[in-house]
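User: tokens in, sequence out, please.
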């Protein structure tokens, strides 16, 4: 989980940034993803089953690499 350092209290969003013109892309929405799949679709059910498998208290599909990433991502760099 990302935790912002206490001395970095700058605003996350700058006022007016949404109206800025992109200078490297021909349009701002070029790489925006589409809407998520609906809850009645096979894709949604498949992805939800994967989340439940990996996120369960006793996951069976986690590899050593998954465990390493989880340990790395859950250790905070900044003291709480």
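Assistant: Sequence out:
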């Amino acid at each position: 989980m990302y935790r912002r350092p206490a001395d970095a209290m700058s605003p996350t969003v700058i006022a007016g940034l949404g109206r800025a013109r992109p200078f490297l892309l021909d349009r701002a929405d070029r790489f925006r993803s589409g809407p998520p799949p609906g809850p009645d679709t096979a894709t949604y059910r498949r992805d939800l089953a994967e989340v439940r498998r990996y996120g369960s208290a006793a996951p069976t599909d986690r590899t050593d690499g998954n465990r390493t990433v989880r340990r790395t991502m859950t250790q905070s760099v900044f003291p709480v």
